[in-house]
Design goal:
homodimer; about 220 residues; alpha+beta; Nucleoside Triphosphate Pyrophosphohydrolase; 2 domains; 7-stranded mixed β-sheet; about 25% helix; elongated; DNA-binding
DNA sequence: TCAAAAGTGTTCATGATACACCCATGT
DNA sequence: ACATGGGTGTATCATGAACACTTTTGA
């Protein structure tokens, strides 16, 4: 089948990772400023070339951990972008992934890089390199869909949180206000969370109960 | 970025296409018998290498049309399989797709091939080459999911059909019996189909009205 | 006239939505 | 004491599920 070997080894395989988190009450993605020639000054999603000794998945995982020093980050393959001219350097087929990090993981961007790294709210993205606008768009769609029919919201929150914080997250990603009582009724019906014996302290108003997710693995549940 | 060019051009990019149709009241996939060495006698999903001058999508489309001489066949990217040893010939990263062909397209398998080509019900697949078992499994899951929340059933049926045939299709892919009256109520509520002035003829029993889909483009609708 | 699939509405149960007040704390 | 977010229940409405008989044709 692969006789004319070299003729077909024309492309480089890369992975691109759209890393999501919530910051300042908005969904954010992590971007890197491009330092070199044709895209200098533009921003791109983290990524890199796949090495011969690595699977595509492990390459994505490595790229993720280069940015976020954290374990158990949710990572899922998104889509493969295979247009011919998507990269001016040459033929690069990119397998895109998306990842979800909780708020508490945000400060971990303190890994040192030669270029600058920053979070951007998805409503105000800078000029993007390559087809990364398209990739981020696809990732948002997928994330939004998954949050409506699975419990992966647990990836977006720290270990302990209040029900209002949980509700706020859903409102942010779903772009709509939810009724507090109905929301809590549903959350309860699915046993999504369990109460801890702790409360928020030092806040101006009545302390809120802190909750944890009862299950921290992906499950299909018809939330919204 | 791509300095050590050749070092990274280690892999071949391929596409594999899981082609679905319904036959004998079951969901079927199209398979090709392998003629050569390590997988001789096993069966595989159609596919082929991506050429330097082609996008990944167009390569998939071409592979599909090599098998099914038909226009407007539904084709969607499924997942990219990038394990190191998935192909004994060498490093092949495969971008898998799935396609949906209506019953009337089934006879079009009469394209001539050096190897044999056949439809297999997904409940009784033969021994499969490569990781194609995994690929077919993923494709089934995706197809089933999409049929529950979109209208893509129109891809699986001929131009005109009876409501019973439509219901039967859903029962086949969802693995469960549906109530006839509730089914028709829902189909009606979404304006999924429109009646033609034709009826089935020559059948043993009462003739049924023939219907068409009102829209033949993918749409999100919460069917089941 | 019989066998077999086509066609058609109503009732009931369940889940979704709308809605308002008291509570506990920091300042 | 007051401003602010925390916490709770009920009534209504819409949607989904269960269910049986008559009709039309070919044989």
């Amino acid at each position: 089948m692969i006789k004319k070997d070299n003729q077909y080894k024309f492309a480089v395989i890369a992975t691109d990772i759209v890393i999501f988190s919530v910051k300042d009450e908005e969904l954010n993605v992590l971007l890197i400023e491009m330092g070199k020639k044709p895209f200098k000054g533009l921003w791109a999603v983290p990524g890199g070339l796949v090495k011969p000794t690595k699977t595509v998945d492990s390459s994505a995982k490595r790229n993720l951990h280069n940015m976020i020093k954290m374990k158990d980050v949710y990572l899922e393959q998104l889509y493969t972008f295979g247009k011919i001219d998507r990269d001016p350097y040459g033929r690069v087929v990119s397998v895109a992934y998306f990842a979800i990090v909780p708020d508490s993981g945000i400060h971990l961007q303190t890994v040192k890089h030669d270029t600058s790294v920053d979070w951007f709210p998805i409503s105000r993205l800078p000029k993007l390199a390559y087809d990364h606008g398209e990739i981020i768009h696809a990732a948002c769609e997928r994330l939004r869909a998954k949050l409506t029919y699975t419990n992966i919201m647990y990836c977006l929150l720290p270990e302990e949180f209040t029900l209002s914080e949980l509700q706020k997250r859903y409102e942010i990603v779903l772009y709509k206000k939810l009724d507090k009582r109905n929301f809590r009724k549903k959350i309860g019906a699915f046993n999504l969370v369990k109460k801890t014996d702790k409360k928020t302290l030092g806040k101006p108003h009545r302390p809120a109960n802190l909750f944890q997710f009862s299950k921290k693995r992906p499950e299909i549940i018809p939330l919204f």
